[in-house]
Design a protein that fits this description.
Shape of chain A: elongated
Oligomer: homodimer
Mean pLDDT of chain A: 90
Structural class of chain A: alpha/beta
Radius of gyration of chain A: 33 Å
Chain lengths: ~850, ~850
């Protein structure tokens, strides 16, 4: 069994050396192979570390012998994956009274005292596990005195009832055992599992000759990287501590130097330009050789620059994009690798819209800019109300005094968060940043009354639940109404990466877009079309809502038609505008879906108003509402059921679509509209709707003298539609899976009502994930596969897609690729994420079959 | 091609002869073979009739030649299946002026005039298609005069512009053509399709020598059967018309005779006992020879008795049972045949409970006894409320001023119907009888206010929606409250048939029974156990409801446990009683299923009362209600979701079940309780519940020192549970399909809300049947098959069953047999229907595979 091996002898394959000795050892080996100055180092293998943890005694004598007589070494952790963390580095192993005496001579007494004192304290705390409080008052600044050193050694011997170990081999043995064992501790295990580590995650260790950073000539330690963490553009960033060791330069309160000339203080560039030039040269060699921008931990020892450790440079999501693209453009990595370098979910941080600089919003509160981006929606005061809004596909802003863990699902469902209390590290701020939700915290001018559901500004203005506000998490402001926004300026690297994603991806990406605004955003993000245009939102504008209600209160078919005739031109211009924006790209329009009662008011007051407006007795308004009320609206009279029972609605919509088609095709690219029937559960539903829509198409063609084609399809969102997909397909050009509703029905679980127990369910592992966030591959996924297979048997050319919220989820995209779907459709702001995820899936080339994905 | 053949030469196989010449011809052939006196008859084949309809001229000369010179014949329809109807019989073909002259001589002028006159009129109306009004005033009584005959012939020649055809061959030709063509007419087609006839339903015709029924000596015609239509017991029933023809004896206003001595008038037994004795002898020969009790159409001609036609004797559903059993006991048919003779659905008419004669109910209204049986339930005033009750598995009585077609689904859902207006042939009465729902109509003392939802009695007492009443459709009374009932007295033949059903059936039949009453009924009907005991109904009793609400309002786990501890002994005694009644037969108990908000009051008034009772501010009651309210209760916090989030409820129920098991096993047969987990959608749900229930079982065993076993299973009622049945099965002894909820979720269709469009959907053929009445084999059925297959792969011995309302439906039972299910469970009153349907399916031995049933 390989126990320890000189780092530079590690094999070329970094995956193998990482698995055997850990990622850090593997990277150091690479630097050595590139000829960079890394002090002599030996790797203790992962298997050796686990044996040491189990109690075996390693042969430290031989190991230490490699470093020569009286060597001082460090031990650094080298987990198989860097993200898994690992025990703290321990420096200066090998120091003892004898060596201390020699160093007094060589470095001066103060430096020697400081080194020894520091080593004894770190050993005491990290290896002997003494209470750090024991060394209170003996901090580093005082360690330079002989008294402090004696006190420190005294504390050790008092507490341990033995003198500080003088044998370097004993010291190293204890350090290795301590670090090997701490890897198995509960805290370490939980922390690394949070970063995706498996139960048997391995740790290697690195024993390295110390470059002391103290002594004669220029000496010190620092960290440096040559890209700007926020953007990824070339820049020098870091700190340097003369006469320092390890990461001293990063400790607050230390008088560390800047790296380049800086008006805030002295810099390495000022004091040692040669060292900086060396580091810059090393960095470029390492960047090309290691295929990534790195961050060095370096030490200057008597004028000689050593690289002790290297890690990927710190980078924001935006910087990650720039770094990957620059590497690829410099030929250091392939475009495919660049695609894989960026975590798709992180792109959302780049994509938040911002308040339009031209806008003159009415700001009613200012607070801390806790999570960037701007968002607009209806005020809700509880997490469950936010979830209910999301289920109704309504944007909401969650307003709370402060948030707590119970609010997390609500925060996920809200478009933005505003809290009265809390700072930049409050629960709301931390979670919102994690979720990528724009957030303003500590808006202390406002007063919330959660019982009455009101928000009162410091000027006494009152907002009620349902009122629309906008929060600006970039600038820390809350504004009344729907403030206009602009897309963020994304740099050229982002566009380049997106272009590359298009080169590789093999599945279409469309957007769910209900409005011209949505459609324009989608266009800018480079979609292949609109996969879901929900027409019902078009009826909620005030002028249309009135006509809509007239339609609902119509006594007979002719009155109903009259109301619909007034809606027709509005719908036609909606569609014509969408077609114009999309310039000939496909637009899939879902026919009217929600139950009619959603268009009637709820409060007594609003019903009275409606009665006045419609010149009806209020009792009639109430009784109409009652007659339309449903026990389970999700499973009620909506979608195609409404389309068949009140066919005039779909007739009107079909006419609006076709007239808009004629209009748009005359002005620009020819349009082939796609019409989608919602909530299908039987093939005959499609037949009946198709017959009427065909008739309307013929009418419009005869009236206008213009020929056009259209594509009819069904939204598969009931389990039965999935099972009978073969029957449906016969009359369909496409089937699009509405995974939101399909998930609700497959689980028998209302999304609106699941909030009350979903957290408990996920925590207890009843559901591995909330199936409304992550596609349930084993249940819903099987229905998707079964339906797609049957659909294709019936109609080999049928177009298959997903248009639920899952459409933007990388795991779902992987699934859709495996199932051979034609496209996924997601919200406009998720389009880049989806494009990147699709490209990654294609590049990884796993080409999993669907059997790999569903366990039956 | 066989064109016509002498009836007695038809082959022995009655199926073949029926297919070739029709069922009537086939039966006549049988009677002839039995040596019974049937006049000479020839059958015109089905294929010949369809050619005649298409325009081919049949060779009537040869046919008529068979009957000898100057024969008088009749033509009778002989459809392939009797139920398909057919054109009216035409008598006396061959009569003309010459023959009339001869008959004047032989029978007397009046009789000859009457015969000829009748023939001309019938020919004119049925063959020449003259308006019957043309013969107004020339009715049969006047036909005996020469003037009337001349007038009749005159009308014919006036209308037809030609003399009445004198050539018998022409007459017969026209009769055959007319009857052949009328079979293809729209009315005839629709009528027979309503009786299940296929599009190409065939008709044969019978040409038979007339037995005149007039003339010298005893002459006349009648109908007779030798079983009582209401009960099937031996009895003589019929009418006889001296000097009559055909079915004259059945015409109202005619002075027909009774058959046996009758105080209401003269009888054949008085006037011609020999003829009666002959008929009785013929009947017994025919009964044994034709394997059924028959009804004869007979004619006495000059003292000689002829059988012109025979058909199955009229019989009620109860009589059908008796007749079939008697035939089998007499060896005329096998027991298997007897099983097939009774339509399972018809048994419901025998099985309605009746008001206990010992009961002293408070009758608040009397009306007409429109549909027999008694039923009890909550008052509802609309069909949709009745459907909603049914969906909640609550019994309801639909109370209407009168019903209309829109109410049919509500009537189907209600347990009983009460109307203020209407007679025995009103819509409510007719439909209720058809549906087998107890019904009282014309309860004119009551006043309904549908808006306020009140029923006011003539004494001024007011009933509200939700109040419990009982209707007695056997005696025409409506009573307050839940009046005790007894099972109907079913005769020995019924028990015998049920015993035979058990001999043949190969699938278990259990009952859905929530209460001791249900369990006793189920026991009496001979179940194999209880397949579904819904425990939540046990909590609605007033004393328990209070404790239940305390549990809901509990602030913490210990308060909740305290309330549950008070429910424990009540539940224990519920279960102990069920176990005792079922005497060791399996009892499958479903753990608590409904959402908690069902236990809280709705009206402000009731909430105030509850607040007082619980010593809480009313605001707290309201806010608790609001916090428990759900958008889609069907898909919400219920079933196992409640069981996992509030585990104390299932803990209590499990303890109650196990303690009752110990108690019942000590007193009688050892009990192995079955515990069923509702609304499962993930395997982990079963694991978690199982772990707690196992723990409770161990506790109870330790406490009591008594060992017992139990069987845990899952109710499969979400599509996901069906898809993941393999995972569930690992921890389950059984899987039971709750097809009500599974249908709702598979279609995405709330049963409560489907009423608004279900009729339109079924009428337009969107759904071929209401899937809540008839199992949707193509969708829900596929999930059942898929789940059962996966369940069996995981656990080969797993017990599979259906416990939704479909469990009592013959088509569903056929499906379950094909799928190899172990049992079906249905409501107690459907148990005999299910037993018979199961036996029929087994006897038919079709053994369809499931591929035959589901079209994928």
């Amino acid at each position: 069994m390989i126990e320890y091996v000189q780092i530079q002898r590690l094999g070329k394959d970094s995956d193998i050396s990482s698995a055997q000795f850990g990622a850090r050892a593997s990277r150091l080996a690479k630097l050595l192979k590139l000829g960079l100055p890394v002090p002599l180092a030996y790797g203790v293998s992962v298997s050796a570390v686990s044996e040491i943890a189990a109690g075996r005694l390693p042969d430290v004598a031989t190991l230490l012998g490699q470093f020569g007589d009286r060597a001082i070494v460090s031990v650094r952790s080298s987990p198989v994956k860097r993200a898994w963390g690992g025990p703290e580095t321990l420096l200066n192993i090998g120091l003892n009274d004898a060596l201390h005496a020699k160093l007094c001579h060589r470095l001066g007494e103060a430096a020697a005292n400081a080194l020894y004192c520091r080593f004894v304290q770190e050993y005491s705390i990290n290896v002997a596990r003494l209470d750090p409080e024991a060394f209170h008052g003996l901090d580093e600044d005082k360690c330079g005195t002989r008294d402090a050193l004696q006190a420190t050694l005294g504390i050790y011997s008092d507490e341990m009832e033995e003198a500080f170990p003088q044998n370097p081999e004993d010291q190293l043995l204890q350090v290795l055992r301590s670090m090997a064992r701490s890897w198995g501790g509960t805290t370490a295990r939980i922390l690394r599992q949070a970063h995706g580590a498996p139960a048997d995650a391995g740790l290697g260790l690195i024993v390295q000759r110390m470059a002391l950073g103290l002594g004669v000539g220029e000496s010190g330690a620092g960290v440096v990287q040559f890209v700007k963490p926020s953007t990824g553009e070339p820049a020098i960033r870091g700190r340097y501590m003369p006469k320092g060791q390890g990461r001293d330069a990063l400790q607050p309160g230390k008088s560390a130097l800047y790296i380049t000339g800086d008006k805030r203080g002295r810099s390495l560039e000022d004091t040692n330009p040669k060292a900086l030039a060396e580091l810059q040269k090393y960095s470029e060699i390492a960047r090309l050789g290691c295929h990534d921008a790195l961050r060095f931990e370096f030490t200057i020892e008597g004028g000689k620059t050593w690289l002790l450790d290297a890690a990927p440079a710190n980078r924001s999501p935006r910087a990650a994009v720039r770094i990957a693209v620059d590497l690829a453009e410099d030929g250091a990595i392939s475009r495919k690798s660049a695609i894989l370098r960026v975590e798709p979910a992180n792109l959302q941080h780049l994509l938040h819209p911002q308040i339009d600089p031209e806008a003159k919003p009415k700001i009613f509160a200012r607070g801390l800019a806790a999570s960037p981006g701007a968002a607009c929606g209806r005020i809700v005061f509880t997490a469950s109300a936010a979830q209910a809004c999301a289920a109704r596909e309504e944007a909401s802003i969650l307003v709370r005094v402060e948030t707590s863990p119970e609010d997390i699902r609500g925060m996920h469902s809200a478009k933005g968060v505003l809290t009265e209390r809390g700072g930049m590290t409050s629960h709301a701020a931390v979670i919102a940043r994690g979720l990528g939700v724009p957030c303003v915290v500590g808006a202390s001018g406002i007063t919330l009354n959660v019982k009455d559901k009101t928000l009162t500004t410091k000027d006494g203005e009152v907002f009620y639940e349902g009122d629309i506000i906008t929060v600006d998490g970039t600038n820390g402001a809350a504004m009344a109404g729907d403030v206009s926004m602009v897309l963020p300026q994304v740099d050229g690297a982002f566009s380049t990466l997106m272009d590359w994603a298009n080169e590789f991806r093999d599945i279409g990406i469309r957007a769910n877009a209900d409005s011209p605004t949505d459609a324009r955003i989608a266009q800018q993000f480079g979609v292949d079309g609109i996969g879901l245009c929900r027409t019902e939102h078009m009826f909620f504008d005030e002028d249309r809502l009135t006509v809509m209600r007239e339609m609902i209160f119509a006594d007979d078919v002719s009155d109903r038609r009259a109301a619909l005739d007034r809606l027709l031109p509005m719908q036609r211009s909606d569609f014509a505008e969408l077609f114009a924006i999309m310039q000939g790209l496909p637009v899939c329009i879902r026919l009217f879906d929600p139950p009619l009662h959603e268009f009637l008011p709820h409060s007594r007051e609003a019903m009275q108003e409606l009665a006045e407006a419609m010149d009806l007795p209020v009792s009639q308004v109430i009784s109409r509402r009652e007659s339309l009320a449903e026990f389970n609206p999700m499973l009620g009279m909506r979608g195609v059921r409404l389309g068949i029972t009140v066919p005039e609605i779909y007739d009107m919509q079909a006419r609006a679509i076709f007239e808009a088609t004629v209009e748009a095709s005359a002005k620009g690219e020819p349009v082939v509209p796609e019409i989608m029937i919602p909530l299908v559960s039987a093939a005959r539903e499609v037949e009946l709707v198709k017959a009427r829509i065909d008739a309307v198409a013929t009418e419009v063609q005869n009236e206008t003298g213009v020929q056009f084609t259209y594509r009819l399809g069904a939204m598969v969102e009931t389990p039965r539609a999935a099972l009978r997909a073969g029957d449906l397909a016969v009359n369909c050009a496409f089937l699009s899976f509405g995974t939101n509703d399909l998930t609700q029905m497959t689980y028998g679980l209302s999304r609106d009502d699941s909030g009350r127990f979903m957290s408990a369910y996920v925590n207890q592992g009843v559901f591995t994930e909330d199936p409304f966030h992550t596609l349930d591959i084993d249940g819903v996924g099987e229905l998707l596969l079964l339906a797609s297979e049957r659909g294709r048997v019936a109609m080999p050319d049928i177009v298959l897609s997903i248009c639920g919220e899952h459409g933007g989820d990388p795991a779902t995209i992987e699934f859709c690729r495996a199932a051979g779907f034609n496209y996924v459709s997601c919200s406009p702001f998720r389009v880049p994420i989806a494009r990147l995820a699709a490209a990654q899936s294609a590049v990884r080339g796993t080409n999993k079959t669907t059997e790999d994905l569903v366990v039956t």
